[in-house]
Each structure stands twice: as C-alpha cells, then as structure tokens.
Amino acid sequence: MNKRDKEEKDIRIKSLEEEKLIVEIKNLKQIWRHPSFWPPLFTFLLVLTATIYSWKSGIFEIKSEKLELETAKLELKKDTLNSQIEELNSKYFQLINRYESVKYENDSIKKVMEKWVKTKQSKSDLYMLISVKEEEV
Predict the structure, then answer these.
(1) What's the rounded Cα separation, in Å, for the pair 78 and 54?
(2) 105: phi then psi, degrees, rounded to nearest 5
(3) Which end of the chain is more exposed for a tag (fewer CB within 10 A), N or C?
(4) pLDDT digits over 103-122, tens only?
(5) How far apart, in whole angstroms, are the C-alpha atoms of residue 81 and residue 120?
(6) Is the CB of residue 99 less than 8 Å from the CB of residue 67?
(7) Got the DSSP string for 71-102?
(8) Burial level of 66, CB count in 10 A (0-12/13-18/19+)?
(9) C-beta of residue 79 within 8 angstroms of C-beta of residue 96
C-alpha cells in the first residue's frame, strides 16, 4: 500500500464517520423513530386510559361509597353493642341488689332458726318468729 491509498482510505473512513454522526444526530432529532421509544409510551398511555375510564365509570366513587356504607354499618353495630352493654350492666346491678336482699333475708331466717333450735320451741312459734322477722324487713 502506498501513501496515496492510505490517504484515500483515511478520507473514506472520515467521510463514513461524518455520515454516521449526521445520521445519529438526525435519529436523535426524530426520537419517535427509535424502537425503544414506543413501549414506555404505550405503557403510559394504557395506564392513563385505564385511569380515565375507571374515573368516568365511577369505580372510585363506588369504592368510596362502599367504605362509607361499611363505616355506617360498623357505627350502627357499635351503638347496638353499647346499648346491650348498658342493658346488661343494669341487669347485673339489679341481680346484685336482689342477691344482697335475699342474702339478708336468708341470714335473718338462719338467725330465727338458730334461736328456735336453741329454745326448742314449737313449730307454731317458729312460724310466728319468721312472720315477725319478715315484717321487720
């Protein structure tokens, strides 16, 4: 190879490199022609379309209404349970009072019975003692 061939080859290489740079710059200006441009764009458009469709069809409103309905049901259940708790507490205190009353009556009857047993009185005296104790109560 002589010097002239080498120079021609270098000139061709430089010219090819320049053409390549020009084509690359042109491709950068027209990015939509590049294959890697389209998949992300389609993905974005698909998500955007699905969101708009969902919004217009009322899916988000339906979900919020379901949440509101569920909240209302839970509040109603809470109120019902609270009223049941109050009712049960009231019954509990009534039973406690009744228990104390019966216990007091029972203690009184025990005392009368013990007194009757100690004194060895007749049954009629026992009935009389019980009736007197009931009047005291």
Answers:
(1) 34
(2) -65, -45
(3) N
(4) 888 887 787 777 767 776 66
(5) 56
(6) no
(7) HHHHHHHHHHHHHHHHHHHHHHHHHHHHHHHH
(8) exposed
(9) no
